[in-house]
Fold:
Amino acid sequence: AKERGRNKFEFYNDQLNFSYSNKTGLEQELHLAYKNNEFELFFQPQVALESGIMLAVEVLLRWRKSRDEVLPPADFLSLLEDMGLIIQVGNWVLEQACYYRESWRQQGLISDTCTICVNLSAKQIIEPDFADMVKYTLAQTKMPAHLLELEITESILLEDQDSVSEALLELQALGILVAIDDFGTGYSSFSYLKSFPVDILKIDRSFVFDVCSDPDSAAIVTSIINLAHDLGMQVVGEGVEDDYALRYLIDHKCDRVQGYLFSKPLPYCEFMAYIEDQTAE
Ligand code: C2E
Ligand code: CA
Ligand code: CA
Ligand code: CA
Structure:
């Protein structure tokens, strides 16, 4: 019987190996990328409309496959989410972001109120210990909570709304800011803005992009700005690529802007140079 048991074990073991080798090559590569620290953050500023002062920095995930090959999230994020690896990678993103922000604070490199913005996947927020993880990271990095902005998309509202809003409320009580990303592109109704703790709306760049040539986009952008302000929220225009879009957002009293007109997302060293440039002016 013992002998049979062992064979049985080996049989199952073979099966496991078999299914492992059946994983797509990209999944295995992503596991290795995480293990070998190939993920990296790029940084993109958000600036105040009139003064041009940097009000926030968004961190954006990249996969550096080799020195000159850097992949954007479009190439791997949905697979990271399907694999569940987004939990670990997302924790790492948050930790890095807080770590950098706190080191800039200690060095006095950027303004005391400039926030750091971190994108979250639905998978991360529905983890039962999500709020605890964020608190732990703040404690570890010593970064003040009010300097952290968490960006979520409306798709998160398709998840368990009670547990998500409970976690966000708990974090908001600490001073963390909550932003709705890609606002206007989701399928949800406005009602969640009443029950959800939201501080900031980010207008999706598909509306900002042609705000000056498409009257529909212009109407949507104006409405989102007014809605945000009527609800006591701040509003950010994303994807600002030219002076026309910028002029429109200034005229309609948008609070902050982000886009290639100011800077592309930059790797760490280039972002440091950008900051020095700004303070030198
Ligand atoms: P997002 O949060 O909407 O981020 C803005 C995206 O627009 C970025 O793409 C950025 O490079 C791009 N962008 C910024 N300014 C302009 C502009 O003026 N014109 C145009 N055409 N594009 C502009 P990126 O870095 O490829 O990121 C794509 C998406 O991946 C992000 O969209 C976000 O949803 C997701 N993502 C990025 N980093 C993370 C992360 O750490 N965690 C999670 N869960 N998602 C992330
Ligand atoms: Ca974002
Ligand atoms: Ca966005
Ligand atoms: Ca987007």
About this structure: Confidence is low (pLDDT under 50) at residues 1-19.
